[in-house]
Amino acid sequence: MAKEGSFHRYAWVILVVSNLVVVGALGLARFSYSLLLPPMQTGLEMTNIQAGSLATADTIGYLMLSLIGGALAARYSPRIVVTIGLALAGLGMLLTGAADSVLVAIIGRAITGIGSGASNVPVMGLLTAWFSPQRRGAASGIAVSGASVAIIGVSPLVPRIIASNPLEGWRICWNIFGVITLGLAVIAAVFLRNRPQDLLQKNAENATSQGAPRGLFQLGQVYRSGTVWHLGAVYVAFGFSYIIYLTFFNKRLIAEGGFTPLEAGEMFLVFGWASLLCGLIWGAISDVIGRKKALILVYLFHALTFTIFGLARSETWFLVSAILFGLTAWSIPAIMTAYCSDILGARMAPAALGFITLFFGIGSAVGPSIAGAIADAGGSFVPVYLMAAGVALAGAASAFLLRPAIKIHSEMVGMQPAQSE
Fold first, then answer.
1. Which string of DSSP letters, residue by residue, matches 137-185?
2. pLDDT in tens, 47-71
3. CA distances from residue 46 to 23, 167, 368, 384 in whole angstroms, order as listed
């Protein structure tokens, strides 16, 4: 029989693989879209509204599978759901690269979103089974930094590929990202384990399914909890505002800031480096001061960041905004992951995270289309970013009204008391 310590050692393997899953599911599948948007718009002759629609299609796919993926992971196997999700994301990127019309591109982005939701949500929930409540925030933060790792890698790569092949460069990029993500799916299948007990049980999947009736009952408790719905409402503000910032980041710099595509890529790289440790930092802060207070602080930082980016007229202020957002970019998903585990326990955390991600997805789905319509109508992205700042402030206000986790936990039947706010 394996020793207790071996579980802790393998937890770091789980953390590394989870980080790689996020590299593919978010960094390559979703966040690289901002860098590829300008050449895609040219190549497919898209308006800003159509460009926003591609991002919306991606998010709707993510939205569809975030809830289902989290529930399936809680009911069956996070490892299987994550692997299939990453494979779908990779195939979706390959289809996007092959698109010869806006419609095909939308379908490709929707499939990519489906794969992203099916892999990202379960893998974040899986971490809660491997780390104690005192380390969940930091562990979740390390995992979400996979998005930063991807951005750091693609920011210098994408502009150079496009510069060497202006007409087909964006297609080449999507093909490269798709192949990499398919490779990450193989890594997830080989190394992920659903829980520490899987290292001892040869038939872990059967052992998991034996607890299904109780799990199904608890799923109902998750979906009926008013405070879980409140947590989802807080998450809406992040989905709506952050996706606007990232989707039109390069577009604003190039069309209104006087940046060349290469300079915009370099600015995106600065953001990527700044965001590398943000999840770890804010996840650890939330372990100390509580999830609620950490959420409020991050939303206030986001409101400031979006305002600066909207009003900036010089490279210095664009740089300030990129760095500030980088320092807080992935912190809210990390805090939400830890929050769900605090209030519901490790087993039901994927289902809860998937449920609140439904709200996040709604915000992300409508944000780019609304922003694109405003930019087309007004001929500027300034009001778009000021709107995003206002929504972030609303997120801070909503987080302020959250009850302590121990009170939220009292709504759930048959759970252990939560240990942090």
1. HHHHHHHHTHHHHHHHHHHHHHHHHHHH-TTTHHHHHHHHHHHHHHHHH
2. 877 887 887 788 788 878 877 777 7
3. 27, 15, 14, 19
